TrEMBL record, chain A:
One of its GO terms (molecular function) is protein kinase binding. Belongs to the ATG101 family. GO terms for biological process: autophagosome assembly. It is found in: Preautophagosomal structure. This is Autophagy-related protein 101. GO terms for cellular component: Atg1/ULK1 kinase complex; phagophore assembly site. Keywords: Autophagy. It comes from Oncorhynchus mykiss (Rainbow trout). InterPro entries: ATG101.
Automatic annotation (TrEMBL), chain B:
It is found in: Cytoplasm, Cytosol; Preautophagosomal structure. This is Autophagy-related protein 13. Belongs to the ATG13 family. Metazoan subfamily. InterPro entries: ATG13, HORMA_dom_sf. Keywords: Autophagy, Cytoplasm. One of its GO terms (cellular component) is phagophore assembly site. Residues 254-288, 341-375 are annotated as: Disordered. Residues 352-367 have a biased composition (Polar residues). The gene is atg13.
Length: 210, 451
């Protein structure tokens, strides 16, 4: 089974990096999160309810919807914050943050469990510096429009209904879903990012969310 | 395909389609309420949240949607359309967004094994489609407009069946296919078309409005529920129609590629869904719309306009016009009175019910439109200062700026005061000139010191 890979590219100002990344990552996770599974004795399970929340950006003329889960939001914000710090504040630069969905495959001793990615979303970020307030105002609107296009791209890709892991049994649910959150249950995912410095070298940092 | 479908599966599918249609309408209308929507995630299901999504039902919207459905389902050749329109205080309206739920008889369904219950996959995919709709509704231009609605314009919605009407979207509208879900009874396609030309026509010749968008001007068919000043109570009890699948037997499903899940049947709903039409292709021109209130388009909103008088502003007293003053250089006198007379913010236009004058801030220097006089076209430009949050304060920074962009004239510049002083000034001018000529040497010496 081949892992599906999608690449999105955005150009933003330094102070817009956080919100742009949050908007795209949350949009993806909205589609890749379910309610909590509650297994019952007779072999059935029920699924909880996923709430949604509208978020307005401060530095971009844009609003997006995310899963109503503060825990999940904290994890994503932490990852995005580290990515932004690695990019540097207010300087030109390029970076890439990746959201990878995977499932675990149990291996026999002495081998460790294998993580098999089935979908990877890569967001390439190009940070630009702007000279004056007028350019910033234009950038607010332009980046908002671009993010809207990216959201539409994400929706079109996701609704192609490609591979999704099978619904697991109770014993295997941790191999497919992140069950650490109290209110929602996203598919297992990890966030990584690469920063390209001025010399063109890349450095990869892993941010394991689960 | 229908012959392979068990009666229970068919019943499930009909129910899914019905509630998907209802939830679609809720999502779209709530996204245009003008407020941020926030629902809680619940780890334990309540039994009433369809598609495992917390979408609260606004009772009025559900009522109207059911009326529009009239016991039937969107089917082959019978698309359901939800149309969002914007109506200004000048009763100029245009359609800004149309979402179409279409079921075609083209193909498909399964990549899954025959052992898998068809309804489970459909249910999960419909849930995904609703999430996509949630995301899409926030990124189209209509969303920003809806967040700004209020005194100047309101957002309306209309549900109808039949052929989708896109003429009201203007030129260059964009279409997005939100998603597709295949079922044994047809393919469910959810798509949207949205206007990209958001030019507001400030002055329109008589008769031009009718040509702009007849569908909304014929307001008998328009749901005139407005969501600007008095949004309906939306945090009501979640829909009680039927139940929601919650008992899911755990059977690891075989098959390599398809998603699996087993969903038990729902309790019978109160409305028995009609069998979707299995007639041939070709959209019929049946157009069924809803009527909520028998009011004219302009009666959608009643507002009370009050103008805050700024400091140092004298209320206009006697009506003095520049023409009545026999003064030299009268043409150079400040035309404050004329401005006030014509200023709609001081004297709102006499419209039947909606007395919400357009604020000057709505009109910004926008690009001219081709095919029309540039000075009459306005492009609405959103103004959102950094850190401005609409829901934080009753009047945030952006609102404050817009309201006070055209402040009233100061008292010292009003015609009645200045006219009197100007008459006196003109009379005393010769004397002053004589004095200045007398002291001309002093002035010259002063100028020399500056050089």
């Amino acid at each position: 089974m081949n892992c599906r890979s999608e690449v999105l590219e955005v150009s933003v100002e330094g102070r817009q990096v956080d919100e742009a990344m949050l908007a795209l990552l949350h949009t993806i996770l909205l589609h890749r999160s379910t309610g909590k599974f509650h297994y019952k004795k007779e072999g059935t399970y029920s699924i909880g309810t996923v709430g949604t929340q509208d978020i307005d950006c401060d530095y971009i003329d844009f609003s997006f919807v995310r899963v109503s889960s503060d825990e999940l939001d904290r994890v994503i914000r932490k990852a995005v914050g580290e990515f932004k710090d690695a990019m540097g504040n207010g300087t030109d630069g390029m970076g890439q943050i990746s959201l990878e969905f995977y499932q675990k495959k149990k291996s026999r001793w002495p081998f460790s469990d294998e993580c098999i990615p089935w979908e990877v979303w890569s967001i390439k970020v190009n940070v630009v510096n702007l000279a004056n307030e007028q350019e910033r105002q234009i950038c607010r609107e332009k980046v908002g429009e671009k993010l809207g296009e990216k959201v539409i791209n994400i929706v079109e890709v996701i609704n192609q209904h490609e591979y999704l892991p099978k619904m697991p049994t109770q014993s295997e649910v941790d191999n497919v879903f992140d069950t650490s959150l109290k209110d929602v249950q996203p598919y297992l995912y990890k966030i990584t990012f690469q920063i390209t410095d001025t010399l063109g070298t890349s450095k990869t940092t892993w941010f394991c969310a689960y | 395909m229908d012959s392979d479908l068990s009666p229970q599966d068919k019943k499930d599918l009909d129910k899914f389609i019905k509630f998907f249609a209802l939830k679609t309408v809720q999502v779209i209308v709530q996204a245009r309420l003008g407020e941020k929507v926030c629902t809680r995630s619940l780890s334990s299901p309540t039994g009433s949240d369809w598609f495992n999504l917390a979408i609260k039902d606004i009772p009025e919207v559900t009522h109207e949607a059911k009326k529009a459905l009239s016991g039937q389902l969107p089917g082959i050749g019978r698309s359901m359309c939800v149309e969002i329109s914007l109506k200004t205080s000048e009763c100029f309206s245009f359609c800004s967004w149309t979402v179409t739920l279409n079921i075609s008889d083209y193909y498909f369904f399964c990549r899954c094994d025959k052992d898998i219950k068809v309804s489970y996959t459909v249910y999960n995919r419909l849930s995904l489609l609703l999430k996509s709709l949630l995301a899409i509704t926030r990124v189209t231009p209509a969303y920003k407009l809806s967040r700004k609605q209020g005194h100047d314009y309101v957002i309306l919605y209309r549900i109808y069946f039949g052929e989708v009407q896109l003429t009201g979207l203007g030129e260059g509208f964009q279409t997005v296919r939100v998603g597709v879900v295949g079922t044994p009874i047809g393919t469910i396609t959810l798509s949207c078309a949205y206007r990209t030309n958001l030019a507001f026509m400030s002055t329109r010749a008589p008769g031009e409005d009718e040509g702009a968008y007849n569908g909304v001007e014929d307001s008998q068919e328009v749901c005139t529920t407005s969501f600007s000043t008095s949004p309906p109570s939306q945090m009501g009890i979640p829909g009680k129609e039927g139940g929601v699948p919650q008992q899911v037997p755990v059977q690891p499903c075989h098959g390599a590629q398809a998603e699996h899940g087993r969903v038990s049947s729902c309790p019978p709903a109160d409305h028995v869904p009609a069998t979707p039409s299995s007639s041939g292709e070709g959209a019929e021109t049946l157009s069924r719309s809803i009527e909520v209130k028998g009011v004219s388009p302009c009666d959608v909103l009643e507002t009370t306009f009050t103008r805050k008088v700024g400091a140092f502003v004298n209320k206009p007293g006697t009506q003095v016009t520049t023409a009545s003053l026999d003064l030299p250089f009268a043409a150079f006198a400040p035309r404050a009175y004329d401005l006030e007379e014509n200023d709609p913010m001081v004297q709102p236009p006499e419209s039947p019910a909606t007395s919400s004058p357009l604020q000057g801030s709505l009109h910004s220097q926008g690009s001219g439109e081709s095919g029309g006089p540039a000075q009459d076209d306005f492009v609405m430009v959103d103004f959102k200062p950094a850190f401005s949050k609409d829901d934080l304060l009753p009047m945030d920074l952006g609102t404050f700026y817009r309201e006070f962009q055209n402040p009233p004239q100061l008292a010292s510049l009003t015609i009645d005061v200045s006219s009197q002083s100007m008459a006196e000034d003109l009379d005393s001018l010769p004397e002053k000139l004589a004095v200045y000529e007398k002291n001309i040497d002093e002035f010259d010496a002063f100028v020399d010191t500056l050089q």
